[in-house]
Amino acid sequence: MKTENNNLIPDLLQQKRTAQERLLTLYGQMVFRLVARIVERREDAEEVYQDVFIKAFRNIGTYDGNQASLATWLGRIAYNEALNFVRMKRPTLVYLDDHDMDLEEMEDEAYTPDNERTIECMEQALQHLPPHEQSLLTMFYFDHLSLKEIAYITSSIPSTVASQLSRIRNKLYRIMQKR
């Protein structure tokens, strides 16, 4: 893919339509999945998706292949555009108070991933998290991005992402306990 990107970037810089279509083909689904996890309504997600690629086409000159892969760079644009959209459209959510959970409590047999009721409860609990927290969980657990990649996308550092994921998991667990 890196060789293909090396050929793609110069053509994108020249605003060649075939290169733009290739970028959409290669990364369109990934970008839409990321946006759709943050933006609830499909119509809004489609609008943000378009904005992501317009921004990418306009700013391809700022892409630095030494800093991140093209997919990660697009993911960063998608993440920021989706969060900006949600912030403009959505009221502020109230956060639950944070306290540390005992690891043994979190590993309680009633909350193993094999338990269908737990999975259903977890999916419902995810809906109570702010978009930023939902997206961190999905990037890490569903998209299998590394802490470094998530840090780049979110303009953070890996240790901060790790701490945020830990707090979000604890919050998710508490939400599930209350259900």
Topology:
Layout: H1 2-13, H2 17-38, H3 42-59, H4 70-89, H5 103-106, H6 116-126, H7 131-142, H8 147-153, H9 158-178
Outline? elongated
CATH superfamily of the largest domain: RNA polymerase sigma factor, region 2, helix turn helix motif
Number of helices: 9
Largest sheet: none
Low-confidence stretches: 91-114
Which CATH class of the largest domain is shown? Mainly Alpha
Tell me the strand percentage band.
Answer: under 5%
- Helix proportion: over 70%
Count of beta strands = 0
Tally of discrete structural domains: 2
How would you characterize this protein structure?
- With 179 residues, this protein is mainly α.
- It folds into 2 domains: 2-89, RNA polymerase sigma factor, region 2, helix turn helix motif (Rna Polymerase Sigma Factor, Chain: A, Orthogonal Bundle); 103-178, Arc Repressor Mutant, subunit A (Orthogonal Bundle), CATH 1.10.10.
- It has helices at 2-13, 17-38, 42-59, 70-89, 103-106, 116-126, 131-142, 147-153, 158-178.
- Helix 2 (17-38) packs across helix 3 and helix 3 crosses helix 4.
